Amino acid sequence: MRSLRSLGNSYWVALVALVLPVAQSHAQQCVKSEGLSICAIGKAQVRQADETSVLLTNLGAAGTDGASVSLGQATDWTAAYETSSKDPEQKTTFTAVSDGAAISSTTSVKKGDTREISATFSGSGADSTYMVQAYRQGELVAQVSRIPNGVVAARALPIGGGTGPSCRPYYQTVPDCLANCNVMNYGSCAYCDIRCARPIGFHNVRDQALLGACRWIIRDAVTPVVLADGTTVEADELVLTEEVRASGSYPYLSFERILFQTSGGSARLGDQTVGISK
User: What are the pLDDT digits (tens) for 70-80?
Assistant: First the structure.
């Protein structure tokens, strides 16, 4: 992960526009949740929803409103979230910040029943690339390497009929899950008894071969996924990992902030875990 200040890539100039509201957030509304300071970004309003989550409202259509989460010097972060929008297209972006600069982001654009997932990294400057790995129940089923910054890594398709997902979405109660299962006419509703893992995570890779690289982990119910090379698999987890080239990388080993920005309606963020750098 390389500092934004060392990059000449116009893409990161655009991305910094997402980071600039962080400085403004200090004068805006902030709440404490799960021991973390969470401040509104842009025109968003934030309030405590329950003991483990905050509710964001007044989210505009541009995808720049949301929340900034202060973490200290973290090496790992996971969270649960959900978004609500009546717009035909919805954009959700998570951005990791280190030393006040954006070092990585992942974006999900929902278009009807499909979602396009991409990422950006800064470890090798303007020529940064990343790898997507698709897992199902912990088993690697496919991977694609050398994906350029910002290019779509995977397109998630609607589930449709069949045996159903492998777990209950974190935001659903068991009765709501059973009701949805019956509407979808799945062959089994047993998955409603198993709560899905937190759907988003950001990590510093500690393996020596990838030391300093960033990694996003995106989890969902089992769904068909079309990867960047056209391969179609069923997966419940996507791992997006920065491909750091030693000659061009300047690794960061921690990050201090996560930005959550989304468009339209409202959103909820909570159930967060933070690994602290020592």
Answer: 999 999 999 99
Q: And the tokens for 260?
A: 């959550």
* CA-closest candidate to residue 221, choices 261, 185, 257, 177: 177
Distance CA 90, CA 111 (A): 7
Residue 234 forms beta bridges with which residues? 224
Average pLDDT over residues 43-68: 93
Judge contact between 192 and 177, C-beta under 8 A. Answer: yes
Residue whose pair of structure tokens reads 């339209």 in the numeric block? 264
State the residue for tokens 């199902």.
136
Report the C-alpha gap between 133 and 262 in whole angstroms.
Answer: 25
pLDDT-based confidence at residue 62 (cuts at 50, 70, 90): very high
The residue with tokens 């398709």 is 157
| Cβ atoms of residues 122 and 104 within 8 Å | yes
Predicted pLDDT at 205 = 81
User: What is Dmax (Cα atoms) for the chain?
Assistant: 55
Closest CA to 35 of 273, 243, 277: 273
pTM: 0.82
Tell me the pLDDT tens digit for each residue of 233-244.
999 899 999 987
Burial class (CB in 10 A: 0-12, 13-18, 19+), 172: middle
Question: For residues 211 and 260, what is the distance between their CA atoms, to the nearest angstrom?
Answer: 25
